[in-house]
Design brief:
- By secondary structure, the chain is α+β, with helices and mostly antiparallel strands.
- The protein has seven helices and 30 strands.
- The strands form eight sheets. It has a four-stranded antiparallel beta sheet, with no helix packed on it.
- The chain is globular, with a radius of gyration of 22 Å.
- This is Transcriptional regulator STERILE APETALA.
- InterPro entries: F-box-like_dom_sf (IPR036047), WD40/YVTN_repeat-like_dom_sf (IPR015943), WD40_repeat_CS (IPR019775), WD40_repeat_dom_sf (IPR036322).
Length: 440
Amino acid sequence: MSTSSSSPSTQGGDSDYEGPSSSRSRIRSSNGVWPEPFLEALAFQVAVDASRTIGRLAAAQALSNIFQVCSTWRAISRSDLLWQNLARSIWSVGELLARESWREEYIYRHRTSSNFRSRRYEHATLHFIPTDNNNNDDDGLSCRRLALSDHHLAAGFSDGAVQLFDIPTRLHLSTFYPQHRDRLGRFSSAVSGIILSDSRLVFATLDGDIHMAAVNTAAPLRRAHLGDVVNDGALVDFAGCHRWWVGLYAGVPGRAFHIWNGETEELLFIGGTMTDPEAVMGWHLLTEMTGIIGRIRVVRGDMAVACTGLRAMVFHLLSQGIVVWEEEFRRGIIVGVFDAYGDTTMIPDARRVAAVRRVGSMEEVCRFTMREGVSFGCMNGGYGVTWGGGVIRVWEIEHGHYLYNFRERIEDCNALIADERFVAACSDDATIHLWDFGAQ
């Protein structure tokens, strides 16, 4: 199917711009009365257009040009509503948390992205003690998933343990174990996905169980959903946000996607045939450490994007799984490198060509060719990150240019993740590496 649904656009009356009330003041110029709402809307549109056509860092120069026209135009730089609209549209910031104003938030995001482009970071390692929940020799040391929030990092392992760290102090906070029950296969309790915020931790295991814990409280871990691996298959990937949880299953035909309301924990939808060809591989995951079967991500606009080794797909969550885009890749997809962030997705084919597309229209933003041996990848709003042969490399994904590789080599990487400030990777030597691009 090739029908598409447009993502929020910045063209012609941008819906992301929150206009001021009619009672707001008007700024006078020497040629008459200039309405402040008009100037703010103009500055917003110019900045967003620059971010779309040139890159997010270009928005700052576009704004500077506007503010230098005259003192009248410069006055709108003091509007916190303008900076709020810009931070939401360009940097996808939902709420103001750590900084005192939206202008400071915008400057912080711009500086962090500039650091990302210029390889200015601080590197740290987080060490953890192997869990005592491990009944599989050294298999419990294998990190299966990583997740980041503003102040926390979570790592999920093949023995079912999830370790939570405080990023500012680099200290280990706690370890969570899935509730005990009869297991079908030695790896049925392996972590298959983590959803993390600074207030809540949600994680899933291959047998379909979903557990939840409050962060920084004494509330115990609880099971939010009891999996049914016999009837659903293995839960091979799990992702989401505060509003949605989505699971990608393999093992039973016609049950590839599960969609939950992330606030009420209600299961809303089961269906889809995407992983039917990988059914046997899904069952093998329960008993042996095989390759990555598929990935799924929740993106802006209440949509999800998923892939297997041969197919990629976008579907609506509000419409309970209605497919809006689907494509087969006859030469295959490198599933471990596939990712999505904000309103873009990175789909790498077996020829090592990664195409960055805007979810919804699926228009191609750029493409770049990765190096030999790449097996893991991730992305944020402006950069693609890959690992292969012990080297982590970074591309900007506005035009597809290669930027640099990290100074640190990471051997035997088994998990990789990025957000707008951090990149994290876990290696087989029980070490989590953290690169911080927002350090002052």
